[in-house]
């Protein structure tokens, strides 16, 4: 794309209508810049912004400037930080340009002239100094030097980042709406009803939005709707006790790193609420200096001694509090919290004094439950743990009655009309992420909460009696109660964040109302996210997870029949569940997938302290298994939906259009026949919208080099206390549809990459972002069945290349070092992987790899070593074609394919590739010829008509 097109796209701002999202393929023929503006989700917007910056940086000389604007609490700062972590750019927060005491409107308090001077200096290649604002002292406290050579990209982050004064200096304009901004709007509208219009509500709680913020957002080229509200996926685990003698831990707080903060925390009750304390309906506002943070309700989970809180607090404007009070919200509780905190590794230790209570508390925080518990033991904290919030303590002292905790449910309180069986259960599937048309929207995109956001109250769990004959009194802890009382299914399906919260609440409800243990089953197709959900749930409630893969029969696994229900040792599973139900120790098998046999048994006992066990697997909700479980959870989506969308995209690129249902029946034949019918009966149904390509939360930073490194050097940079190593042998097969436009070359982005490792098949999602020396790719790969690979072959995918390798893996929990010996490479390649970019870079420097990195994929490296003809079409050496064909035949035979189902076009040879490419080009030429004919016909008709009209006039 030439410079004039780039300039036009970024000056005109594109077209103001919704359109289909472009392919995420990194094909060189597509340009993200030409597709703007786009209305997308947060994850997709992050991906598009990174790609847009990279594309413009290649085409433009000098600095690339980006503005990310939107209302307070929409998530714009989070987006800027995530992009900066990948690009390595400079972020300029507009809040540092406040002009002193913050009087008047927020817009008037911004020093635009200083910001413009800073941007102009950086654009002209000059170093500059940006101000630093202290929100506790409410004034500027100095400046920070920014060197123009530090980065080729600068991001301006702030509510008014798209203001008319700045737009001419910005190359890319991004608007972010949603987050707590939409959530608060929905919450207020829910609380006060339809007594006033949406515009009135906006003007009340966000008085500057419609006049000073919203008009600028329409000039954005990337328009992001952030649906995030709160999430327990990255929860904070807290242990809290009274600090009877603060001197006992005084040594921790005498360090120079100790930080002191003072907060004012307020809880606002809705205008229509009763005097009793329904604190989950309240709004929490925290003031820190001149900053205000808001969260909806007392969002937390209490499990044993732990208080578990989600990431749910966002900054809002200072006038939002006044607007809520004007709408009738009342400040029920207000107190001051003085905090002195110090970091201990990944944990935080705080002394917090609450003025209303007149007491000091010791609080230990962290993101991992086991780590927090272990640190508390190491520190010797012996005080009695408290699980009540400061709000609850204050309410108890005031004597306010509580309505949040319902009484225990007895059999007499369960009426027959509470039975809620699913008469005609419907399949749960994630819908394709299609963008709506503009005329379908009731409100402008900048302020229109979706229907799901307009229903902020989640349903609560209750029982539905499954046996009408038990009409009398039944003891809560008796086996008869356990057998007769069944959970009523939730009425709807939920996203992963709400589903995780409901799963934990369901477990706690069963623990309170039924006897221990509680046995949970989480089922769903391969790659749907059930394993991830199981471990996140277990981390919150502190329980064990057992995978149904442990129950594979060795004789079935040898034939790759992982997705066959008969491959499970059902008698052993039933015995284990029976032992767990009766409180007995049981022996769980441990299955070695590499050898295809059971390696040993491990002893498992569910203690009274935990009382929960989770079984997860494809068939966890099969009728033969779920009848023994207390809570049934179904998960769909994830990479399961990603692969279906990817196949649909590939088929459309070669001129063949298939419905998602047709693809699913071929690629996941077992799912519709043997898995989906069981999922519809679940108590809780979860739709996982996670896309491993787009999500910034799944980023893994990778450095790759072919420089030789000694084994001892690797050991020296890893933590010896946590060091472990392993060996893996794998084969990567690259599947590609014939006729895929690729200019005669094989690109990894055009292929579906399948890895065979330790007897398992995995889908490797690799559409990475390459930035400098780093490759940013998804953290994990996703298991699939052999029938899925066979289904791809039946849809016409052709095995065009394969790589055979062995990997030596060394890791210490922070970074992973992988030494790959490729069959067709003269020397091994070393990869350093980690979620922390700085840690990966430091490891590379310690191994003296700087200057030797490559961002090429292994496929690209192998292809560059081949002769030109083989590189272009078959992708493999001629002598390797037989081996690849042998692998394909084995997959088809084991995957249930018949020769008649297989396309003859799967023979791998250079001549077939040439013919397929020629046929593809001929089809494209035919389409262009048809279009040109139609256009010339219209043009000639217009000319003839015009000439006849002129002749008639004369």
TrEMBL record:
CDD domains noted in UniProt: UMPK_like
UniProt superkingdom: Eukaryota
A GO molecular-function descriptor: ATP binding
A Pfam cross-reference name: PRK
InterPro entries (alphabetical): AAA+_ATPase, CYTH-like_dom_sf, P-loop_NTPase, PRK/URK
Entries under Gene3D superfamilies matching the protein: Hypothetical Protein Pfu-838710-001 (2.40.320.10), P-loop containing nucleotide triphosphate hydrolases (3.40.50.300)
Domain AAA+ ATPase: 62-212, 516-662
Transmembrane segments: 928-949
UniProtKB keywords: Membrane, Transmembrane, Transmembrane helix
Keyword Transmembrane belongs to the record: yes
Name of the protein in its database record: AAA+ ATPase domain-containing protein
